[in-house]
Every structure is written in C-alpha cells, then in structure tokens.
Amino acid sequence: MTAVVCALLAAVTFGGMSVAVRRGLGAGGAATSTLATLLPAFVIAAAASTIRHDYAGAWKFFLAGLIAPGLSQVIFTRAIQEAGAARVSVVAGTAPFAAVIVALVFLHEPFRAPVIIGGVVIVLGGLLLAAEKGRPGHVKTIGLFLGVLATTLFAVRDNLVRAIHAGASPETASVAILFAGVLVSSLWARQVPTRIELRRMAPAGILFGLSYLALFEAYFHGRVEIVSPLTATESLWAVWFTSIFLGKSEHVGRRVLIGALFVVAGGVLIGVYR
C-alpha cells in the first residue's frame, strides 16, 4: 500500500510541478529558473535525509543526477517555456518507451511483445500531439523537440537508477540526485536567482522535491510492475492541472487529451511487462 500511495503521489506532484514551472516562469532565463526550482527541492530532500540516510552508495545517484535533473531539468524548463506545460508533459510521458529503447540497445534487455506494443501506443500518442492542427501560437516546435531531448535524458537516468537502487535509502538517493541537479544548473546559470525568481519558482521546487522522495520511496519498497504504471499517469495529471490553473492560455483540446491517454496507456503496458 505504501508503494501505491507514493507512486500516485509522485505522479501527482510531478504533473503539478510542470504546471507550477509554467506559472512561475517570468522574464528570467531557463537556467536560473531551474536553479530556483532545484534549490527548495534539494532542501526538502536534505531535511528528509537527516531522518533516514545511508550515504555509502550516494555517489552513484549523484552521477545519475548529473544527467537528470542536472542536464535534463534546464532543457525541460526551456521546453515548457517554448511549448507550454500540457504538451511538454505529454512528451515527457514517453520516457518509459525511451527507457526501453535505451535498455534494448545498450543493456541488451530481452524483447517482450507487450512492451513493444506499449511503445507503439506511446508513439501513436506522440504523433497525435505532433500532428495537432490549429496549434496555439505559443506552442513552438522547438519546445516539443526540447521535451523529447529532456525525456531521453530522463530515460537514461531511469535505467541507471534501476541498476543501482539497492545501494542507498530513498532519501539519500533523492538528496544525491538533486544535489547534482543544483550543481549542474548552477554552472549553467552562472548567477544566483533573484528573490523574485526564488519566490515564483518555490511552488515548483517544493513539488519537485516531494515527487523525487515519493518516487524513490515507491520504487525502493514496491515492485516495478506496480509502481511504473501509476507513475506513468503524470501526463494526465499535468493536463488536468493545466486545464484548471492555466485555463484557456494553454488551449488544451481533445487531441492533446487523447494523446495523453495513449501515452499513459503505453506507459502502463511497459510498466507491467518490462
């Protein structure tokens, strides 16, 4: 039951984080906005790690964190800036399929038909999004491309974490990964976020920190075939939150919703059978 609750919490908070990033973005750059997001996320994880920690294997998660959220989160934030939260979140929902491709090519995981079917369903969802007619003016193709790039980095990170997750506590994994994210985004930004940026991005940072803690708690204490399908619903949560909090500014239509449903369905298939 703990794994189920944590997996759902991870999906809800990550979906909410995407919307909070969109609301918080101002005139500042993606790098400083990302740093302003990761700082409170790291503080939350660090506070949790004081209660329960095992720092012996933390360095492995730190290395994984250099990839995501290190490199990925700045790209993900820029993607939201260029294409909006809903559509980028649907793209991010394809991460399970990207993780499978990486695992098949580089880790030589066995071929499973249901996993490939899930991948095809995800691709169909992505095609629905790519072929969207009457796309709002604020949705730029470069934003969707950056979303794909960030998702690929998520997938690489996910495969690394699957291989090393037995080496530390969930809290330690979270704090190590987020510390790496803070370090990379600091080097990228080359400046400290302003107080306004910190205040605007604080909700996104809090949700991001909670999502990582919940995600690792779920994976460390639950079976992958249970956790993965639940976390795959993050795209639907993001689309729903977008329609509530961003209203008509994002123009979430039927095609985006159907695309999100396809992506989630494919992610569930992959999570169950991988």
Automatic annotation (TrEMBL):
The chain crosses the membrane at residues 56-76, 88-107, 113-130, 142-160, 172-189, 201-220, 256-273. InterPro entries: EamA_dom (IPR000620), EmrE-like (IPR037185). Keywords: Membrane, Transmembrane, Transmembrane helix. The keyword Transmembrane applies. SUPFAM superfamilies: Multidrug resistance efflux transporter EmrE (SSF103481). Residues 2-129 form the EamA domain. GO terms for cellular component: membrane. This is Unannotated protein. It comes from freshwater metagenome.
